[in-house]
């Protein structure tokens, strides 16, 4: 059971500080506690001066005292779309924004699913109709050794400072920490293929029994055996199968290469269209 959580944000990030300020109303104890002995799950807040994408900016000795880390952050996109997003950190290819190339962070598929479901529910309850609620494929740093996830507000200063968006993210974090319990009836999966914002996997994470950890986007093609095994190895739970975004895996030759890798390693797989919702 996850008991001790750490929420990390950067003082230089307006979205991160917006979320932290909103989150203060949900603290059981406003003082930073080293590891609480309370029976109920609790969280501490850790603010860093510079970017949370760079591992060297983080006190990893402090972080390693906790069961789970939630990074609260801004999101930027070329189209400047309004969004609330969730994703695992790490780099399947070259590390261009923190972390280490070819390495991803540990991830909990069960917590990721609970967090994403809570984000959708709370956004609907508060009628946040103009924001896109989405997962993102695994990308960027930092690289740490305990399970973690990013939850972000996108994509401009207006959204980053939106008290409504900050409240919804903060409420999502608080509710997920307070109510999350491991559901061993979930089917654990990683996703392969499709665009960065995971339209095919979003629906399954929200409406099916599948819980996703890492998502390997199409832009990582050619997808190697090392990439797939890294995603599976860094999933906290035992992975039941891989879900393939069939149309988002390039041409038939590229799809077959991925299938060959999976079958060589005795890893079960399904097309996303085969999953019941």
Describe this structure in words.
- The chain is an alpha/beta fold and 277 residues long.
- It folds into two domains: 4-179, Aminopeptidase; 187-274, 3-Layer(aba) Sandwich (Rossmann fold).
- Helix content is 30%, strand content 22%.
- The protein is built from eight helices and twelve strands.
- It has helices at residues 14-23, 60-63, 109-125, 157-160, 163-179, 199-207, 225-233, 252-264; strands at 4-10, 42-48, 68-75, 83-87, 90-91, 103-104, 132-135, 148-154, 187-192, 210-216, 241-244, 269-271.
- Strands 2-1-3-8-4-7 form a six-stranded mixed β-sheet. Strands 10-9-11-12 form a four-stranded parallel β-sheet. A two-stranded antiparallel ribbon has the order 5-6.
- The longest helix is centred in the middle third of the chain and has 17 residues, at 109-125.
- It is globular, with a radius of gyration of 18 Å.
- It starts with a strand and ends in a 6-residue tail after the last strand.
The CATH C-level class name of the largest domain: Alpha Beta
CATH architecture of the largest domain: 3-Layer(aba) Sandwich
Tell me the number of structural domains.
2
Rounded mean pLDDT score: 94
Task: Tell me the total number of β-strands.
Answer: 12
Shape: globular
Could you name the CATH topology of the largest domain? Aminopeptidase
Determine the structural class based on helices, strands and strand pairing: alpha/beta
* Unreliable runs: 30-36
Q: How do the strands line up in the largest sheet?
A: 2-1-3-8-4-7
Q: Major sheet, described briefly? A: 6 strands, mixed
Helical segment tally? 8
Strand content: 15-25%
Query: What is the helix/strand order?
Result: EHEHEEEEHEEHHEHEHEHE
CATH superfamily of the largest domain: AF0625-like
What is the helix content? Answer: 25-40%
Head-to-tail CA distance between termini = 27 Å
Return Rg in Å: 18 Å
